[in-house]
Write a structure and sequence with these properties.
Helix content is 48%, strand content 13%. Helix 1 (15-26) runs parallel beside helix 2 and helix 4 runs parallel beside helix 5. It has 10 helices and 7 strands. The protein has one domain (6-271): NAD(P)-binding Rossmann-like Domain (Rossmann fold). The radius of gyration is 18 Å and the shape is globular.
């Protein structure tokens, strides 16, 4: 599954993406690493210790994505890997703002980056995987893609959509040899909260305690690879309360809705610095 195979990771310059690169490199995979920062991608490739192609591009440059996909697939063929064995749709940006305060530009930005960009890339690769009769697609969603999380209305909308898209692709292509894994992380210790957009579409510039004390990216990456080996189709990569609320959404949604409303009533937005003064 990994040894000698080509895996393409977006959002590979840091966080879960960089940790996946290290884990896949250790497992013997060759890597295509994408993000916006070539220097950071080169550093990740070095740390991964694997034959790698740094392929930087802007995720929302939709007109260029077919050509980028051609470049990636052709490199994979040249490497003798038989094309791209796995695509990890990991790039994304989060949010911390109340919907009532949030400019529409925030919704446009997050849905473009977190939903339309991975759809565009997958649509450029999927026909080739189908023609090859094999391939893995991994969609990195979020617990916020299962639960409508407060302060994340744009992010939840995009991540819900990402789950729906990947679930549909799985249903349509399973008989054609394609395997799809959706991952829904909770808090992972990355810069996701620091880089999240505020109500005015600006990076907030500081992190959340829950994120800072979250799961190590390396542990998250190891669990994702274990899920791929096991043929898992959905991995809720969360612990404690975050795992519980994902379960509640599917078993007792009314209880969950009440809990989410109580969080806001008790000052959750103020605690996270997302309430207008």
């Amino acid at each position: 599954m990994f040894e000698g195979k080509i895996w393409w990771i977006t959002g590979a310059s840091s966080g879960i993406g960089a940790a996946l690169a290290a884990a896949l490199g250790k497992a013997g995979a060759r890597l295509i690493l994408s993000g916006r920062n070539r220097a950071a991608l080169n550093e990740v490739a070095k740390e991964a210790g694997s034959v790698s192609l740094a392929l930087p591009f802007e995720a929302t440059d939709f007109d260029r994505i077919p050509a980028i996909a051609d470049q990636a697939w052709n490199w994979a063929i040249e490497q003798g890997g038989g094309g791209i064995a796995g695509l990890v749709n990991n790039a994304g940006i989060s949010q911390r703002s109340l919907a009532v305060d949030t400019k529409f530009a925030v919704y446009q930005k997050i849905i473009d980056v977190d939903l339309l960009a991975p759809i565009a890339l997958t649509q450029s690769i999927l026909p080739r995987m189908v023609a090859a009769g094999t391939g893995h697609i991994v969609g990195i969603s979020s617990v916020a893609g299962i639960v409508g999380s407060p302060l994340r209305s744009a992010y939840s909308a995009a991540k819900h959509g990402l789950i729906g898209y990947h679930d549909s692709v799985r249903a349509e292509t399973a008989h054609l040899g394609i395997k799809v894994l959706v991952v829904a992380p909770g808090s992972v210790a990355t810069a996701v909260s620091k880089n999240a957009l505020d109500a005015n579409a600006k990076p907030r510039g500081f992190s959340d305690a829950a994120i800072d004390s979250g799961m190590a990216p390396s542990a998250a990456a190891d669990r994702i690879l274990d899920a791929l080996r096991a043929g898992t189709r959905e991995l809720i990569l969360a612990e404690g309360m975050e795992a519980a609320i994902a379960h509640l959404r599917r078993t007792d949604p009314d209880q969950l809705f009440d809990r989410m409303a109580e969080m806001i009533a008790r000052g959750y937005a103020r605690q996270l610095g997302a309430e207008k003064q």
